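Listing S7. Sequence submitted for prediction.
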Amino acid sequence: MIKSLINFFSKMSTVELIMTLRGLSIILQVFLLLFVNLVLNYQLPWLPMFIIIALELAFNVASFSITRNGASSKKNHVLIQLLADVFFLGCLLYFSGGATNAFVSLLLVPIAIAAITLSFWRGLIIASCAIVIYSVLLWTMPMHVMHGNMAGHFIGMWINFLFSALVLSLIVGYLARAITRRETTIAKFREQQLKKERIIALGVASAQVTHNLATPLATLQLLSEELAEQPQVPNDLLNDIEQQVNRCAESLRAFRVTTEQIKANEKQSIRCASIHQQIKYHCQLTYPEVSFKFIDKTLDARIVIDGSFIPAVVNVIDNAVHASQESQNKTIEIEAYLQDQQWCLSIKDFGKGFVIEQLHELGDFPQLSEYGFGVSIMLSNASLERLQGKLWLDNHQTGGAVVIITMPTKVD
């Protein structure tokens, strides 16, 4: 039974939980009012108290309706709900003994909820309102009640309430926010761990594939040499085969060099203009049929990189080229500039752009476009993060996608 109630309440949002508890408290208020008047024969003002309870019920029903329609901000809605609870409880206490009522400590409940669920300043608003309500109840007590030592007793109760409200608002609120921050940090750490595990798995798979390609590539080189000795084989065909084989061999060699640099954690400071030239050379060599527009505004800035940086940039450019294949405008704009002590490389294509719903799922193998699953983008992002860089994805207004790579510049 208890587990069922816990599961039932745990599925509710904060606002729904507050309104549900208010509904239960309304039932309890009616029961206590009838019990005190009919059983204990203690006459309380029926009419004003039932009017307050009716207003409380109407407010609760209206709040349920607004919540169902989603017409209010979550945090502001919680704040309004708790302020209403303080107000209604203060009104009921006013007509049932004021500060002498034993239930006056219930004003601490909204303060506790606010300290856990709301920000510091919103929680302080609830605490201040509760303290003001208690102070008004104490101030409006009849003089005949404040005789003898009772005045000191009620003032002591007020001071105790003030101290309890401050403890709940400051200490409990701080602990609740600290726990929330810790849980957020743990969640981010777990997400990073999962991402690293995926990257390691991809790295192991790519290393194995590269190792397995070395032998058949050497065989192809021998076959191309044997074909070159055959007079009936056209020279154009031989040249194409040799060019492709040499390109594969160069890629394998570059992969081995990059792997050794990463293993040894070798980094170097390099001029941004030199990087721009390397990117330009790769684009013109690999995609002669594509129109590239290069702009370099980096002057003599320098950044610190390792062997994985250029392949990471090349992956992004390759994706931009593939995305623009079916577009009428096949131009790729590559612009390097400096902004806020950051080296920025903007790569803009005029294809179909990214799927908007997936732009924030970079680390989860998103289906970014119809050309692939975005694995190369994810690997590029991982390589850049290791070098304190960042990768930004977006769609620009003129159509197509824009990817911005940022790297911190080296300060001499």
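Caption to Listing S7: primary sequence and predicted structure tokens for the chain studied. Residues 65 and 133 are 28 Å apart (CA to CA). The two ends are 68 Å apart (CA to CA).
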